[in-house]
Design a protein that fits this description.
two-stranded antiparallel sheet; 2% strand; 2 strands; 51% helix; mainly alpha
């Protein structure tokens, strides 16, 4: 009755093992269908002209990971079914049976590496049954009793370049794609990072021939463009690409006068037609007069109109009444 206070409960372990098997089957089926689509995509990449080999390698690496995951899920599924059938043995034994030690620790170890909520509940019940220390040893795989294939297939290490090439060759053979990559002797080194050799020059505009040397295009059958003379400062690299040479060591420095804007008129025309020194048709004797006062002052214009508002008018009745009243007041006083 210890399960009442959060201990081991076989009534929770058994159904969760069954539901974990069902979820593992669904996950493996989905990943298998996804692998089929990935194989077709890789074949299309290898079939293009030129083939997008680097992108196909990355897709092949992802396909290998999915393939490893499906393999690990099927192994874990078998172990869940075995534990489900031997539930009575787990209930009656205080220590983990020797023939089930690898199975129990594999389920505990794999519960943190795959997406399966029911398997997490299985791990919780097994830790309740055999103790917290037993669970920590299983998570650390000490002393290396977890299933070796499951550990290898769920590893985070990338696949080797040899395995990636083998997958790509098999995919090309399945979809009748002409693909013969060079042999790889090293079977332990992962795939190298892409360098971009399979990416064409100027893929957006399809003007890659502008950057390539004409002789290289003619030899490679790229259209047979005639040789062209490059402008100063441009050259071809060893790869046959057009690049600009920014070094000015071999080029003479232009004089400062070359950097200034030139006179738009020829020297002879500029000397024959000098600009008038006095600013128009004035004679030399009129320079002082012109400078002191303008030759033709503007005539005085009409005076501006000024608006004068009319004085306010007072009605006679108010003037008379007011005046008489005031005079009467004065006389009375």
């Amino acid at each position: 009755m210890s399960f009442i206070f959060g201990g081991f409960n076989p009534n929770k372990l058994k159904p969760n093992l069954k539901m974990a098997v069902h979820r593992l089957q669904i996950s493996a089926s989905k990943k298998t269908n996804a692998i089929k689509n990935q194989k077709r995509e890789i074949a299309k990449l290898l079939e293009e002209k030129p083939p997008k080999e680097e992108k196909a390698r990355i897709r092949a690496e992802a396909l290998i990971r999915e393939d490893n995951m499906v393999e690990a899920l099927e192994i874990i599924e078998l172990q869940c079914e075995l534990l489900h059938e031997r539930m009575r043995l787990l209930e009656t034994s205080k220590e983990c049976p020797g023939d089930l030690l690898s199975t129990v620790k594999t389920l505990i170890w794999a519960s943190a590496r795959i997406d399966n909520p029911e398997l997490l509940e299985v791990k919780k019940q097994l830790v309740y049954k055999y103790g917290k220390k037993f669970g920590e040893e299983a998570m650390a795989n000490a002393p290396a009793v977890v299933n070796e294939r499951v550990v290898h297939k769920l590893s985070i290490q990338p696949p080797t370049a040899f395995l990636v090439r083998a997958y790509m060759v098999e995919i090309a053979s399945t979809y009748n794609v002409d693909y013969n990559p060079p042999e790889i002797q090293d079977t332990t080194t992962p795939m190298a990072a892409p360098s971009g050799f399979s990416v064409p020059v100027a893929p957006g505009s399809d003007f890659g021939h502008v950057y390539a040397e004409p002789e290289v295009i003619i030899q490679g059958g790229g259209g047979g463009l005639p040789p062209q003379q490059l402008p100063p400062g441009w050259t071809y690299t060893d790869d046959g690409l057009l690049s600009r040479n920014d070094g000015n060591a071999d080029q003479p420095t232009p004089p400062p006068s070359a950097m200034q804007p030139q006179n738009p008129l020829p020297p002879m025309a500029a000397a024959a037609n000098p600009p008038p020194p006095y600013g128009g048709n004035d004679l030399p004797g009129q320079v002082a007069k012109t400078a002191s006062a303008p030759a033709n002052p503007p005539p005085p214009g009409p005076e501006p109109d000024v608006f004068v508002p009319p004085a306010p008018t007072v009605p006679p009745s108010s003037q008379g009444g007011g005046g008489e009243g005031k005079e009467g007041d004065v006389e009375g006083d």
